[in-house]
Amino acid sequence: MSDPSSPDRTPDLGAIAGLAEAEAASQSLELFRRMAVARAFDEHVRRAQMAGEVRTLVYLGVGQEAVAAGLSMGAEGSWVLGQHRGHALYLSFGGRIERVIDELLGMPSGCCGGMGGSPPIHDFERGIVGHNGLIGDQVPVAVGMAMGGTNRPVVTVFGDGAAEEDYVLTSLGTAASRRLPILFVCEDNDLSVLTPTRDRRTWKLAEVARGFGMEAVDIADDPWLVAHWTTALMDRLPAVINVRTCREYWHVGTGSDGPGEWNRYEMVKSRLAAMGLGDESRRIEREAAQMVEARWTERLQIRSAS
Ligand SMILES: Cc1ncc(C[n+]2csc(CCOP(=O)(O)OP(=O)(O)O)c2C)c(N)n1
Ligand SMILES: [Mg+2]
User: Fold this and answer.
1) Over the stretch 178-200, which tens digit does the pLDDT of each residue have?
2) Closest residue (by CA) to atom 11 of ligand 1?
3) Is the dihedral of CA 229, 77, 289, 46 positive or negative?
4) What CATH number does the domain located at 27-305 have?
5) Using CA positions, which residue lies closest to atom 8 of ligand 1?
6) Domain boundaries, the chain
7) Ligand 1 nearest-atom number relative to CA 162
8) Angle between helical axes of 25-50 and 223-233 (0-180°, round to 10)
9) For the whole model, what pTM was predicted?
């Protein structure tokens, strides 16, 4: 029986040599910009919650931002339906930042009127649908959208825990049988709350998907690799991408159990430096942090004045 946790949980799973180096510098820097904005955002949310400015429950995706960044580079213009840990997905797909800040600050101008908090953040005009908290339920909803016929492809993102829900597995089967235009992306951090995959199941999602007759890949969260497979598979839907990634903070809230198994963000920065893009990436990182800080300050002032 295969062990889904090991030895596949490596930062090099599925690596394709020369992929990053073959990419145009502007694309690589945009990929990193999306990661930097998402990371600066969630680090700010963490500090804001610790300072008492954000009171709602927050699901931080620090460590996992390469998945949304890579995916958004290859699936621009799609409907995207994510799960509760969705700030990076929202921002990478072009969700308006003030609407999510206002939501987390409990303001009526937030994307859910300040009543929903972290999971249901959405920006329908940009094709981003939020989550209601029932793990994996976005997957059958996304399949329904693809079945109903939309003017754009559908992408749905879910966790490795959600992959075990009966309605997620039957949704994969339905999409495979009907050849629906949908990309399933499992953001596989190896954890369902605190339970690692090896204590929950023996099977691998990519193998199950292939059994249903869909193309599927199992890769690490190298953002160039995620973008590569997203672009390739968008022409061959339905398909599944299982992405091994690492969560740096607790399931919910701001706590930490120490560093993840690998630090993709630092790895990407080192790679950019080796490609001669170190100065640009440092500038992008600085500007991302400044933009995030400025927007939070502005929204807090609006909240105080109202
Ligand atoms: C149907 C359902 N069952 C259980 C829960 C409780 N629950 C909330 S998050 C979670 C774990 C989800 O793990 P995963 O899908 O891997 O996402 P991650 O938190 O790792 O991003 C569980 C079991 C729930 N919200 N909905
Ligand atoms: Mg998980």
Assistant:
1) 999 999 999 999 999 999 999 99
2) 192
3) negative
4) 3.40.50.970
5) 135
6) 27-305
7) 15
8) 110
9) 0.97
